Amino acid sequence: MKRRDFLKKSIIFVSGAGLSLSALELLNPRDLLAANPEVRWAFLVDTHKCVGCGFCVKACKIENEIPLPANVTRTWVERYVITEDGEVRMDSPKGALHGFTSKKLDQNASGMLEIPDEETTQEFFVPKLCNQCDKPPCVQVCPVGATYQTNDGVVLVDRSWCIGCGYCIMGCPYGVRFFHPEHHVADKCTFCYHRITEGRKTACTQACPFGARKIGDLKDPEDPITKTVLNQRVGVLRDEYGTEPHVFYIGLNKEVR
Amino acid sequence: MVENMAQMMVHGEAWTVKDLFVLPNEYVYWSIQIVLYPYMTGLVAGAFVLSSLYHVFGVEKLREIARFALVFSFALLPVAMLPLLLHLQKPLRGVNVLVTPHFTSAISAFGIVFLTYACIVAAEIWFVYRTFIIDSINRFEAKKDRRAIESLMLMIYRILALGTRDKSPEALEKDHKAVKFLAALGIPVACFLHGYAGFIFGSVKANALWMTPLMPVIFIMSAVVSGIALCIVSYAAFMGIRRWAASRNKTVLLPDRLAGTGETTENHLRGIQSHEVKSTSRYLLLFMVLAISLELLDVIFRGYTAVKSWDILRDVIYEHDFVKIFVLQYGIGNVLPFIMLLLPGITVRRASVACLLVLFGVFMMRWNVVIGGQAFSLTFAGFMHYHLPIIPHNYETFKEGLGGTLVVFSAPFIIFYFLNMIFPAFIEEETN
Fold first, then answer.
1. Torsions phi, psi of A41, nearest 5?
2. Which of A12-21, A143-152, A186-195, B23-32 shows the lowest mean pLDDT across its residues?
3. How far A170 CA lies from chain B's nearest CA (Å)?
4. Using one digit for the tens of pLDDT, what is the confidence trace for B283-311?
């Protein structure tokens, strides 16, 4: 082949290939998987209504296939007991999978702690779950982009791509992430993304007999959650980390961490 | 049922003991392998910096150890990556970091920085050994009846030579320039490789102990300290072994004899060993002062500013980990070897013992940072105690236990044994 022919054919090939390749687009999972970018999912917890039955934890584990005996959970309930001397004591036996069946507080290696009724000044329960932060540190630190934020605000994990380094677990200030005992990749609460995008409630919300948990859309002004967040005094957890959490709490004590 | 329960054991549960209130998902997720990761990269970076002291700054006293440090640094290099692979829950997906790097993450650039550094070290070794490679080819080719191993060596050298046979003074001058350039370029890259390991920890805002901008600098200083210490110990030990082997003619322990290195008589080796070890110890002292000052600055600053997290950090530093931090790390690992190195009339044996203690001290520093950072709950209301699995009962407790630790610790020496056959690290450079 002559040099001229070679150059000619190369130019034709490159321009042809370039033209057809330009039809391809690098897809961002964020755009691809967001069911509805006009929505911003948020969660409302009314701590006054929670009795610590643990139905939410059980429902979540069954719905999301987290083995019941495994000592990790996507959502859990904490019990706070504040005594006269100002001491704050907490426990969450098995994440409250079976509720709080004993008055004694599970202090792990320090054993069970019994506090006499007359010494306590306050006792309450606080459910916890992923805060679906607006600025999620877990997404920031994932080295391979296996965890990502959808346009409707929920942070998800791609189980087929996660390398299991645990950096996101370390990066989360709320301790909501863990390694799935069967899949061996990072796992977390997704606000039951598979359910809410179909118009259903999250498993925990549905299981709660007292309406302590609610899921809603902050971009919808008519949504009861939006109204509560706008009109009532609600708090969020650990905003000092600048994560902009989207789980709002009614009746949040300063002792809750 | 028992088997079923064992399967339900989540990662971290086997070696974590919780005390008081700890969140349900909190465990010591980053265990011994993540302690070893910065330790090993530190050794790589430190060994390289030591070799550069000679190549770039022309510290003549370090000539012999510089060559050794360079080859040893290359032997340590693959081992710096090993702990990460052993730690990953999905090690086969490790390559994803190179395929889809997510650049907001500090870990994502690891592959790129690591490979860049590997290329620099490999290139430097090639230029340092180019004349040697050509000489070896000529020597083996001249030999009539070659043994099988010698033919193999000849083949390896022919590949390594990359077609060059030029030994003219101009070519040698170019070699020299290239080595100097690569060594100079390597220093910032080595510091970056390791400072960046410090950044991985220092940038975790959720962790009260880790989050400090001092972390990368502290890591670099302690890296140089540990790298120099390891080079001194290994150099002294290898020279000791070589002396022993030379006097008894045990060629198995002199793998580089294959390549035909020069003199290996006992008295000669003893002279070099003592000279190199003593002069390197001076540099070790300098870097130790820098490392310890920075670490103390960090602790003092935390205590003085006493932000919210200080309550729990104080408990961890002064109570739970007191022995590990103040006795093992600062006492046995820093102060004691410091005095040993400062006292006049230093011998090879004393320097080696001091360096072993320094290595232990830096290891404890990594331990106290990585494990200590996970010793308390995110709620600041409880503690987690870490127990290194000694006897493994499954693959996970093996790789994240004593077994995995020993694998990582022994790997560089095994690699070095074979590397030394091809690139004799103890060859003496002709003065030009």
1. -70, 140
2. A12-21
3. 7
4. 888 888 998 899 999 999 999 999 989 99
Q: What is the band of A18 on the pLDDT scale with cuts at 50, 70, 90?
A: confident
Q: CB-CB: which of B25, B94, B101 is closest to A176?
A: B25
Rounded to whole angstroms, the Cα distance separating B366 from B372 reads 9
Which residue from A167, A103, A174 is spatially nearest to A133, judged by alpha carbons? Answer: A174
Place of tokens 């030029």: B166
Mean pLDDT of A141-154: 94
Q: Considering only CB atoms, which chain A residues are within 8 Å of B4?
A: 69
Pairing between strand B16-20 and B382-386?
A: antiparallel
Q: How far is CA B181 from CA A70, A76, B128, in A?
A: 55, 58, 12
Phi, psi torsion values for A176, nearest 5 degrees? -90, -10
The tens digit of pLDDT for each residue in B321-353 reads 999 999 999 999 999 999 998 888 888 888 899
SS3 A78: strand
CA distance A160 to chain B (A): 9
Q: Which of residues 139 through 198 in chain B touch A, CB cutoff 8 A? A: none
Domain architecture of chain B: domains with CATH: 11-422 (1.20.1630.10)
Which residue type, as a one-letter code, is found at position A118? E
Q: How far is CA A228 from CA A133, A134, B336, B413, in A?
A: 19, 19, 63, 65
C-alpha distance from A9 to closest chain B C-alpha (Å): 32
pLDDT digits (tens, 9 = 90+) for A39-88: 999 999 999 999 999 999 999 999 999 999 999 999 999 999 999 999 99
Domains of chain A: 32-250 (3.30.70.20)
Q: Is B307 on the interface with A (CB under 8 A)?
A: no
Which residues in B lie closer than 8 A to residue A92 (C-beta atoms)? 21, 23-24
pLDDT score for B53: 84
Rounded to whole angstroms, the Cα distance separating B101 from B89 reads 18
Which of B25, B102, B385 lies nearest to residue A72, judging by beta carbons? B25
The owner of tokens 């019941």 is A68
CB B373 within 8 A of CB B15: no
- Identify all chain B residues contacting A76, using CB atoms and an 8 Å cutoff: 23-24
User: Given an 8 Å threshold on Cβ–Cβ distance, is A257 in contact with B379?
Assistant: yes
Q: What angle do CA B310, B311, B314 make, to 5 degrees?
A: 75
ipTM over 0.90: no
Q: What is the pTM of this model?
A: 0.87
In angstroms, the CA B212 to CA B300 distance is 13
Residues 158-177 of A with CB under 8 A from B: 161-167, 169-177
A170, B29 Cβ separation under 8 angstroms: yes
A257 touches chain B (CB under 8 A): yes
Element (H, E) at A105: strand A105-106
